[in-house]
């Protein structure tokens, strides 16, 4: 069920125990039963409804918030998921403070000095796809640096070439799927994995400093014009934007 992306493994176990799973039309309640791969696996109406009701929201994280577990004297970004920060249609969609907001799990990290798109979800399949280092989901970042990329043309070309090549730092490989110059002091990075301080380490390695870092896209989910500190319901179904076999 998890391999077919019907639900997460944890939810699969729960649905099976509750009698909400049918294999070739027959109800099963033991998760240890082996079945042929071509079997027809279906949910009960109750389980289908539960899957459809799972919530995913995107937040435009401001500076000064940590994305996951709160650190001493730091504020976790999930504190921003309150009705006063719900953006436009999301506010009308909720109507009142939903209890489900406190049960959302963050997918991926943004450090305290980074801003932009942060995804929270109850969907285990979606979370696994985003967090899987081999999942191939693109993450796009806009990075402002302390170098004039248009004036120092030759040096800028060398820096960008090195960033595109990637490198080894403390026995860890840091590489971007693509790096592109956008303007005089801004680069676009596209990653398909996200190590801690990934982009900052890459920039430090080539002698430039990150002034500002903002994530604007995860797969086909875009930050768009969402105001800083606001969140909204995500209606997009995450899809890959390139062939992971390339």
From TrEMBL:
Any one GO biological process: pseudouridine synthesis
A GO molecular-function descriptor: RNA binding
Record's keyword terms, sorted: Isomerase, RNA-binding
TM segment ranges: none
Taxonomy, superkingdom: Eukaryota
Annotated PROSITE patterns: S4
Annotated signal peptide: none
InterPro entries to which the protein is assigned, alphabetical: PsdUridine_s_RsuA/RluB/E/F_cat, PsdUridine_synth_cat_dom_sf, PsdUridine_synth_RsuA/RluA, RsuA_PseudoU_synthase, S4_RNA-bd_sf, TruA/RsuA/RluB/E/F_N
SUPFAM superfamilies: Alpha-L RNA-binding motif, Pseudouridine synthase
One protein family per Pfam: PseudoU_synth_2
Domain named Pseudouridine synthase RsuA/RluA-like: residues: 57-205
Name of the protein in question: Ribosomal large subunit pseudouridine synthase F put
Organism from which the protein derives: Albugo laibachii Nc14
């Amino acid at each position: 069920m998890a391999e077919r992306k019907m639900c997460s493994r944890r939810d699969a176990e729960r649905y099976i125990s509750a009698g909400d799973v049918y294999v070739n039309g027959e109800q099963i309640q033991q998760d240890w039963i082996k079945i042929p791969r071509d079997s027809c696996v279906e949910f009960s109406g109750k389980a289908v409804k539960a899957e459809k009701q799972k919530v995913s929201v995107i937040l435009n994280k401001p500076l000064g918030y940590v994305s996951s577990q709160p650190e001493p004297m730091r504020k976790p970004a999930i504190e921003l998921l309150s009705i006063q920060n719900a953006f436009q249609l999301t506010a009308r969609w909720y109507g009142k403070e939903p209890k489900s907001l406190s049960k959302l799990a963050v997918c991926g990290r943004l450090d305290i000095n980074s801003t932009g798109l942060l995804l929270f979800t109850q969907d285990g399949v979606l979370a696994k796809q985003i967090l899987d280092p081999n999942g191939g989901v693109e993450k796009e970042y806009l990075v402002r640096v302390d170098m004039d990329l248009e004036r120092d043309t030759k040096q800028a070309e060398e820096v960008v070439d090195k960033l595109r090549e990637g490198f080894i730092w403390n026995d860890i490989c840091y590489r971007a799927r693509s790096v592109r110059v956008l303007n005089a002091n801004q680069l676009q990075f596209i990653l398909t994995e996200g190590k801690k301080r990934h982009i900052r380490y890459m920039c430090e390695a080539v002698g430039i400093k990150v002034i500002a870092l903002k994530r604007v896209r995860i797969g086909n989910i875009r930050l768009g014009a969402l105001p800083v500190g606001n969140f909204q319901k995500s209606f997009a179904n995450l899809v890959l934007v390139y062939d992971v076999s390339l």
